[in-house]
Every structure is written in structure tokens, then in C-alpha cells.
Amino acid sequence: MLKLVGSFITVLTSTWLGFHLAMQVRQRPKQIRQLLTAFSLLRSEIQYGNRPLFEICKLISVREIDKIADIFRFSYEELQKNEGDTTYHCFHKAIRQVWGQTSLKGTEKEIFLDLCSVLGRSDRLDQIQHIDRAKEQLQVVEEKARLEQEQYEKMFRTMGVLGGVLVVILLY
Amino acid sequence: MLHKIGGKRWTGGVIINQQLVAIFPEVVRHVILSLEKGKQQQLEEVRLRQLRPIELIFTDGVFYIKQDQRILSQSPIDAMIATPEICQRFLNLVSQHSLYTLEEELQKGYITISGGHRVGITGKAILQDGKVTHLRDITHFNIRVAREVKGAGQHFIPYIYNKDGLQNIMIVAPPQCGKTTCIRDLARIVGNHHKVAIIDERSEIAGCLHGVPQFDVGLRTDVLDACPKAEGMMMMIRSMSPDLLIVDELGREEDGRAIQEAVYTGVRLIATLHGSRITDVTKRPILRSLIAERIFSYYIFLDRSKGPGTISTIYDNQLQKIEYVQTMVSQSC
């Protein structure tokens, strides 16, 4: 009986792990696309709205969903304090708080932080050029992430279930 | 605060409130807040120059912050240095992390912050077709504290009002001599009785925040905030039918043309101009035709010989020096 319960728990855990990894690869391109939308909004608000950065972050936090909205909401709160911290520092604090809860990886984080290091520090044209560059880089990453999703999502799910079954067989 | 202005002493000055001190770098904030109120009110400028001592200019002289004791000293030795970090933090505060929103201000070289205080900035100028389009590497700041001195305009009243009614006057002075303070108080005095329109291109006279004047500029005063003077004068004449227009720091050629247009509609005008001597001022292209047409009844020159706002000389419309009338203050005002 104990063995049966143990086997059931092993298969369940392994399946959960497989499905979790599958969800991660599925979520990543989706969240990159959300980030791209946020960058587009940032671009148009800088170009046409001429709004200060904290207002734009607030706007994005309302329009976007989930964790991407959280990043911009935390950034808005940090920028709003206006205590003299650098823009990069404000965004970095927000990213540190939220990034772990997203499916995004180091490459996207690097692109985001690179953009943050120049945000708000130059004229409009320069800002737009930096945002466009960040968007191009993200699009490349999104394409790769999408291929990874196609390649690994199903595999992780199947391996999760089968891996659990294999462990149980080996233990018996 | 006590200033000797126009031979009389003024009381009043800048109110050091949280809104103003919040803009200062932390070290300056602490020092200013630790000063007695009288000394606080004498603050005129705070200057930050990267890697050089932080300078605080009071009515009675230039002071530096001692590095170890954080007290004021008139010697720059061992003074606190404006580090790149201090400058960067200050720029972030002033620009709200959004320099791109200040493109026009960066072209002009200053930013007006809430309360009417002005932050002058310099760095590396970026040119396009020979014109400054932007400033980069901003490393020098001059925080000019706007002050409200009620009574500062009283001495001008005999020249603004005479038996023929309101007159056009031009106030001429070098920077830091109290021009804006004087016309702000003139707006208050005249604006309590007549319809006054201020064209506040730099948001310095009324210090508008979201369109509402932060200074007392009179009960019947309308303010057109952040609008170019030349355009603003005609807009105000058409829309607000003022008795008196007030504009600060004439400089562009179109300002002169707009004044001609404005005064011939029957509206009176008070304007200010940078300058120190009549011989220099009359050579400025903007004034030549205005002088020739005798548009201004009086040219009042200010200096700092007895503190900011001291009336030094007065010329009439034929540029003849006239005697300064000290005591004739209109009771109706």
C-alpha cells in the first residue's frame, strides 16, 4: 500500500514538473510579446504624448496584464518617489522584485536593463532609437523562444509523465 | 529679510518650504533647513558645478558648505564638492527622469520648476544647422530661488500712474537685480484695481502650477503661462481685454514688434529688459524703434547698490535723466 502511494506521488510530482516546465516555455514568448507591446506604448507616449516616464509606467501598468504590468507598476512607484535615484536604479529595483515570478530569461532582462540605462536621459529622437533597437532585439529573442516552445513544450509534458513512470518501474 | 531697495527697506522674501527644499541635493537641503529663518530667506541661488565646490549665494554674499562640519563658510577651502552622483541625482529630480520632455527648455538653457523657481543648466551643446537643439552632459546647474517681496513695486507707482492714467514703463537691470520680483509686486498692486494680464513665458512671474499662480499677483490679474511673449500679448488683448500687460525679459525682435502692436491698441505695458547702462540699451535692435516712437514713458534702471531692486536712474521718453521721486506713493494702490 505504501509503495502504491509512493509511486502515485512520484508520478504526480514528475508530471507536475513536466507541466511546469512546459508552461514556462509556453509563457515565455507570450510575455516577450507583452513586453514588446509595452515598449511600443512607451515609444508612442514618448514620441507623441510627451509624458514623463513615471506617467508612462503607470499607463502601461494599467494596460498590460500579469507580471509585465507588475514590473511597470513597481517602476512607477519607484520613479514617483523622485528621491533622486537614477532611472536605471528605479527600474532595476522593480525588475529584481518581479522578474523571478515571470517566465522571462536573462537575455530579455539584459535587453530591458540596457534600455533602462538610457531611458529618460536624452532627447526624444535618441530615446525612440534606443526603444526601437530594444524592440528589434526582443523580436529576435521572441522568435527563438517560439521555436523553443514548439520544440520543447510537448516534450516536457510527455517526459514529465513518462519520467515519473520510469522512476516507479525502476524502483519496483 | 531686510533689503534696501529704492532707498527703503523691504521685508519679506522667499519661503523655504518642503516643495522648494525637496529639489536641492540632500547635503544642501540639510544645511538650508538648519539655518535660522532670517538667513533662509536671504537665499538667492544654489550653484552646482561638477567636481567643484557647491556654492550658496545669499543676499549678503557667497557661502560654501564645509565638508566635515556641514556648516556654511565663506572660504571654498575644504568645501563640499558637487560629485557626478550629486549632479546626476539633481538632474533626475529636476527632469523627473524624463529629459525628453524638456527639449524646449534645454534649448533655452533653463527649466522652470513649480513655485516659479528657475534652474539654469549648461553642458555640451548639440548643434543642428548652426542652432542649439539640445544639451548633453549637463554638469552645471544654477537654482535661482524666486522670491515674493510684497511692497517691492511701491516705488514704481508714481511712474506707472500719473494724471493721464496708466503709463508704459520699461524696467532695465542686469540679472539678479530684482526685475521679476518688482514686476510681480507691480502686478499685485495694479491687479487689485485694474485688469492686468501677465504673459509669463518662463513661468517665473506668477509661478503657475497647473495654471494656478503660486504667487500673489493681484485679484484682477489673468496669467497666460508658458506662452511666447509676442504671440501671448495679442492673445491676451483679444481674449481678456486688459488695462495693463506685463511681460518679462524682452529679447527677440518679434517681442518689439508685438509691443508696438499692443500699445497702439490702447493697452498699457510694463516690460523688463536685461541691461545696465542707457548707452548700451539704446543700441539694442529691439529697443531702437520703441525709443524712436517714444512708446515707454519711463525707463527705470535697477542695480544692487543697496540690495536687489535698488532704483539707480530713471529716464523719460526722450531719454532725459529725471529725478527719482521716493516718497510719492499713490494711496489708491
Automatic annotation (TrEMBL), chain A:
UniProtKB keywords: Membrane, Transmembrane, Transmembrane helix
The protein, known as: Stage III sporulation protein AB
Species per Swiss-Prot/TrEMBL record: Seinonella peptonophila
Pfam families the record matches: Spore_III_AB
Segments traversing the membrane: 6-23
Key word Transmembrane helix present: yes
Automatic annotation (TrEMBL), chain B:
Keywords, sorted A to Z: ATP-binding, Nucleotide-binding
Annotated GO MF terms: ATP binding
Name of protein: Stage III sporulation protein AA
Top-level division of the source organism's lineage: Bacteria
Pfam families named in the record: Spore_III_AA
Phylogenetic lineage: Bacteria, Bacillati, Bacillota, Bacilli, Bacillales
InterPro entries assigned to the protein according to its UniProt record, in alphabetical order: AAA+_ATPase, P-loop_NTPase, Spore_III_AA, Spore_III_AA_AAA+_ATPase
Stretches assigned to the AAA+ ATPase domain: 165-306
